[in-house]
What we know:
Elements (H helix, E strand, L loop, with lengths): L12 H15 L5 H7 L1 H5 L4 H11 L8 H25 L3 E2 L2 E2 L1 H5 L1 H21 L2 H22 L9 H27 L3 H28 L2 H4 L5 H4 L5 H7 L4 H9 L6 H13 L2 H20 L6 H15 L4
Antiparallel strand pairs: 1-2
Helix pairs in contact: 1-4, 1-5, 4-5, 4-9, 4-17, 5-7, 5-8, 5-9, 7-8, 8-9, 9-10, 10-16, 10-17, 13-16, 14-15, 16-17
Amino acid sequence: MAVASPLLDLPLMGADRDRVEVALLDAVRTRDAYLTEIASHLIVAGGKRLRPVMTIAAAQVGSSLPVTDSVISGGIACELVHLGSLYHDDVMDESATRRGVETVNAKWGNLQAILAGDFLLARASEIAASLGNEVAGLLARTIGQLCEGQIEELRHTYDPARSVPSYLSSIDGKTASLYSTSARIGALVAGHGDAEVAALTAYGTAYGMVFQIVDDILDVIATDDELGKPAGHDMEEGVYTLPVLLTLSRGDGAADELASMLGRPLAADERDRALTIVRSGDGVASAIESARSYVKLAQDECNRLAECAATDALRAAPSALLDGVIR
């Protein structure tokens, strides 16, 4: 389900997103037409580019001027890391489609997808290095955090006893860290002061936490048509997210029934029953409250920033995400 972001409505954002698209394609163009085609596959498929949008919005705090090419480059580095991680994720998940097109692994094979993902990460690192040692080191640490978050998730696959702290640690690494870095790079490259850099970094983390919790809630409450894939896919694949974990923690008969089905792959009828249990309990509502606490953290960080159109959009963006699951 697509949720509109107030960040996309910022003045000049349309033109800046056009700059992002051009720079993305330029970044993956090589002497090898075959590699260029594979590396640009998901770029051509489209996307909201929320990570470079975050970089641009952070840079625009306190300014009404167009962002510099260096800010665009910082956003591109973050988007390339995101795309590289998607190539690798699709191999691990054996996914057949993404963004309405065949995945790279489905179209060209796993080996090509892994190498193309590595190429995207390498290009991101090269671009970050052009922006200075601090940005280069930051992006390298973030790639490590993505791996740590994914490993934390993988080691608890099919684990009904997975704890909420484990879940939060995982999404902090695999999702929120890159949003945090996107905002921080925008602040650093724009030359913001230390206080603004710290506030925008913390904001990016909180936004990323809301983003992933909302995505995980949608996986259990949205319809197949809304999602473009079967609802409950994460649960079916043994990834037990916050609404599921909070349902299990109730300790009542429904929680016991759900626990008895988990810990192994689910048949279609079992998945449907598991979804019914999660949807009928208070696990979803509790997950929404958890997301709401991160919305508050993000808004608190915005209160430390100069009042301007960018700050207003940043303040509204996490709430807009949450509105997508409040029915």
